[in-house]
Amino acid sequence: MKKITGLLFLLMTTLAIAQPSGTDITYSNVRSGDRFVSDGNTTGTPYHHDQYHKGSIYLNNTLAASSLYLKYNAYRDIFLASMDPNASDDQAQVVTKANGMKILVNNEEFIALPSVDNRYDIQHYQVVVRGNKMTLLKKIGKLFKEGSRATTHLTRDVPSTYSDRFDFYLRDEAGDFIKVPSSTKKVLDLFPKDRKALASAVKKYRLNLKKEIDLIRFIGYYNRM
Q1: Is residue 198 within 8 Å of residue 191, measured between CB atoms?
Q2: Is 159 exposed, middle or buried (0-12, 13-18, 19+ CB in 10 A)?
Q3: Residue ranges covered by each domain of the chain
Q4: Closest C-alpha to 165, from 191, 128, 140
Q5: Which residues, listed in sequence order, are joined to residue 102 by a DSSP beta bridge?
Q6: 30-84 pLDDT per residue, tens
Q7: 10 φ, ψ to 5°?
Q8: Which helix (H) or strand (E) holds 108?
Q9: At what angle are helices 212-224 and 195-204 packed, to 10 degrees?
Q10: DSSP letter at 87?
């Protein structure tokens, strides 16, 4: 990976000061696909938040970098880091993912874990509920659809669009996690020992586990049982 000059050298130097021994973070240069380029007609954004926010990075539960600005590109599943919140993405760096890396930014927590489908593919997950028995993770993604130009006077230009997509995962005390099923019945089936009590709670509180807010309440209830 290439070393950087100017602002990025300052970034690396500052981060090195903030990093305890054994908690080095690796960075790489921003590629063309890692930044948002629009022709002015693109709707939506590849970013979770369009602006940089101050954050910190932990490796093995040890603070590795602080007082830097971060922005999550959900389409590419990467975090961009900069020492200047107003810097362009070209001047930022990509934070290389490491298993167990924790990123705190804008009052949100993200953790890097192997994909359910491919343990060699490390992905960022947002921690929605952290519990003593079960943790609820949210995989924030973006779908991109290429636009098209009008072909006749009867048709119109269709802009390129980024749209949100989310998947939820349950992670137990052992660190194993599974994608949350699409129906309430299938979610309850994941808790055979407590299914009856949980089903009763779902009915009592009228929870629709297809909705994020109700899923959060459900996992919170389970952790308090």
Answers
A1: yes
A2: middle
A3: 7-180, 181-225
A4: 140
A5: 58, 111
A6: 876 666 666 667 888 999 999 999 999 999 999 999 989 999 999 999 999 999 9
A7: -65, -40
A8: strand 108-114
A9: 130
A10: -
Residue 187 to residues 8, 18, 101, 117, 202, Cα–Cα distance (Å): 46, 42, 28, 19, 11
The model's pTM: 0.83
For residue 96, give the amino acid letter: T
- Are the CB atoms for 122 and 103 separated by under 8 Å? no
Helix, strand, coil percent content, the chain, rounded in steps of 5:
20, 35, 45
pLDDT for 21: 39
> Which pairs from 41-45 meet CB under 8 Å and 24+ separation?
41/147, 41/157, 41/159, 41/160, 42/147, 42/159, 42/160, 42/161, 42/162, 43/159, 43/160, 43/161, 43/162, 44/142, 44/161, 44/162, 44/163, 44/164, 45/142, 45/162
The CB density around residue 106, as the number of other CB atoms within 10 Å, is 14
Identify the burial level of 45 via C-beta atoms within 10 angstroms of its C-beta, where 0-12 means exposed, 13-18 middle and 19 or more buried. Answer: middle
* Residue 158 backbone zone (phi > 0: left; psi -120 to 50: alpha; other: beta): beta
